[in-house]
Amino acid sequence: MSAMSRHPKGPLRLLHVHAHPDDESSKGAATTAKYVAEGVEVMVATCTGGERGDVLNPALADDPRVLADLPAVRREEMARAAEVLGIRHVWLGFVDSGLPEGDPLPPLPEGCFAVQDVATAAGRLVKVMRDFRPHVVTTYDERGGYPHPDHVQCHRITMEAFSAAADPTLWPEHGPAWQAAKLYYHMSFHRRRYAALETVMHEQGLTPSTPAPTRDEDPFSDGRLTTFVRCDQYFEVRDEALRAHATQIDPEGPWFAVPLAVQRAGWPTEDYQLVISKVPTMIPEDDLFTGLREVPLMPEFII
């Protein structure tokens, strides 16, 4: 296949890098379902097993099996969500850091994900990238989307691995170098979306359950949005994947408070910030693969 070919040989590939099981269903899951339906190969790499997560579904708070072995339950939940979304899944094998609370904050647990050396920890993700060879990678912004130490560390190792995977002098034991073409941050929780949903709910005589963020400096800021993927056809799939994480998602809770009809009318996209692109593109985009479908590919993106 020549360097002037206009389409990759074989399917496009998308890699989502997430901190915990359930993050793949709460961030970008409708986008995932859309691309899977279109024939894109999608993989989720989950950094930790969520071992220190709380049980957030009141119906399971006292469940004996959940209390006895939450990590095993969360692995089963992840497998169900992966089946719903139609994705490939890999565990990176780090240990959940937990969300520290208190003033002052306590030290993070010894050996947990967030205290790992970034360059060393990124090696596991480099292997995934070289094996799977994604064209597009997604992760969280430098604040982790919200300030959980595992989310921040997930950002750090993804950025490190994105460049390290392309460097043949690094991690040679993990196979031939691979340069992914684009990297995005998830940005779907932002002020513009909340405001639009609130407007539609008022128009329909409904009371919003969650106020929209109002400050541009808020982690949910819309000031960095570049890419809007229309995926409202797959909101039901997203919700089914969310419900698969039964220990983490209350089916009567805020994740499902806004009717799907309101979501479709108010904000039918999931949104991203394009951070790195090795191919030409124009902002705003409506596709994570803009520049990979329509322009000649550079040799390092040829399969």
TrEMBL record:
Residues recorded as binding Zn(2+), renumbered to this chain, are: H20, D23, H151
Any idea which GO molecular function terms this record carries?
hydrolase activity, acting on carbon-nitrogen (but not peptide) bonds, in linear amides; zinc ion binding
Q: Is the keyword Cytoplasm in the record?
A: no
Gene Ontology BP terms: mycothiol metabolic process; mycothiol-dependent detoxification
The enzyme class is hydrolase
**Record's protein name:** Mycothiol S-conjugate amidase
Specify whether tRNA processing is a keyword of the entry: no
Summary of the function given for this chain in its UniProt record: A mycothiol (MSH, N-acetylcysteinyl-glucosaminyl-inositol) S-conjugate amidase, it recycles conjugated MSH to the N-acetyl cysteine conjugate (AcCys S-conjugate, a mercapturic acid) and the MSH precursor. Involved in MSH-dependent detoxification of a number of alkylating agents and antibiotics.
Which cofactor(s) are needed, names only? Zn(2+)
The primary gene name is: mca
Q: Which HAMAP family match?
A: Mca (MF_01482)
Instruction: State the oligomer form and interacting partners.
Output: Monomer.
> What does the note accompanying the cofactor annotation read?
Binds 1 zinc ion per subunit.
E.C. number: 3.5.1.115
Q: Which family does it belong to?
A: Belongs to the MshB deacetylase family. Mca subfamily.
Question: Keywords of this protein's UniProt record, alphabetized?
Answer: Hydrolase, Metal-binding, Zinc
User: Per the record, what are the reactions this protein catalyses?
Assistant: mycothiol S-conjugate + H2O = an N-acetyl-L-cysteine-S-conjugate + 1D-myo-inositol 2-amino-2-deoxy-alpha-D-glucopyranoside
Q: Which InterPro entries match?
A: GlcNAc_PI_deacetylase-related (IPR003737), LmbE-like_dom_sf (IPR024078), Mca (IPR017811)
Record organism:
Arachnia propionica
